[in-house]
Amino acid sequence: MRRILNRLFANRDGASAVVFALAAPIMVGFMGLGAEAGYWYFSYQNLQSAADLGAYTAAMELRSGASTSAASSQATVEATRNGFVSNQGTAILNTPPTSGALAGQTDAAEMILTRSLPRLMTGIVIPGNVEMSARGVAQYSAGSTACILALHPTASDALLANGNTNVSLIGCELMSNSLSPNSVGIYGNSSISTECVSSAGGVSAGSGLTMTQCTNPVEYAPRAKDPYTDLTMPAMPTQCQSSGSGGGTRTISPGRYCGGLSMQQDYNMQPGTYFMDGDFTINANANVNGAGVTIIMTNGGSMTFNGNATIDLSAPTSGAMSGVLFFGDRTDTGVDHTINGNAASSLEGALYFPEADVIVNGTGNSANGCTQVIASTVTFNGDASLSANCAASGTRDLSTPGSLALVE
After folding, report:
1. Of 336, 400, 403, nearest to 372 (Cα)?
2. Confidence band (pLDDT; 50, 70, 90) for 193?
3. Domain ranges for the chain
4. Is residue 210 within 8 Å of residue 192, measured between CB atoms?
5. What is the percentage of the chain residues whose pLDDT exceeds 90?
6. Higher pLDDT, 99 or 41
7. Of the candidates 248, 233, 218, which has an alpha carbon nearest to the alpha carbon of residue 331?
8. What's the average model confidence in pLDDT over 206-230?
9. Sign of CA dihedral 209, 184, 177, 299
């Protein structure tokens, strides 16, 4: 018997199987821990992305004038769309942020997301869920006043200065909504002085660009809002209006000018809405005056102001067409409107041609006035001086979108 027992205890056959059987649960546990840790990391990255996008969305909403509650609601929607699971955590928007470098800053939004993940294999040895928290902070700046806006979404040189142009914009900025890398082009010996240049695309400018409120042009910014996008063209009368006859100063009344109108002498325009059913031309040496007028270009008619004409026109300050001096029919695409003013000319109000192109070869000195040029494209070929002192003009606010960025 002793010999049999000694042989049994000395036998090592199958020992590795026993060791493997004992070690296998530990090895599988470590493998499971690795896989679970990878899942935690992936979940945290998703949560952080959702927090960043939520903060960015909130800042964008606040910049456009939304309330804190509306911004919070939209931020949560965007975070949920990008991986946040609302029934597994919380979403809190703080504006201003309550922590970090921008704590207390009213132009910033902080989004904090939490998520509680149930444990898998680690739950065997560690009780409770895995708690995660992610934080994103975005900051925005309010838009600045603009007086020139090119609306074309993709055109190259949608806002263009050529040749020996000398443009002075007082108290306002240039803005282009085109996504082109050359959305704004300032070439040759052109000289432009403005507070800043903003573009939804790129800006190509040389030493002729002088900016007083920003160091560099703002490129690839959000597009500016068209303030007159909801403005509809009034119904055009069926009867044709007379442009008068004889020499001396002519006084004309609002209405429809069939075939357009060519002015070659002195004109007084009575307050009201004028429909140019064709080309509208103010010829050299003409003197044209009118307060409280809106001129609507329709049926493919183009507007041309020739050199040496003296023009003093202002828009109405109330009513449906408040602030609008010129309105281009939205069905008239690709039409060119050309302005050749002299030093005595004044255009007060909005020149609104959403589907047409405006070519400015010269304007009067509007240093204390209010002039907005909003068109599909805007080209400067001559000297111009514009300002946006529009408090009493009846125009709508024309602003650049300002900046927006994730900062924490």
Report:
1. 400
2. very high
3. 28-140, 146-235+247-402
4. yes
5. 51
6. 99
7. 233
8. 89
9. positive
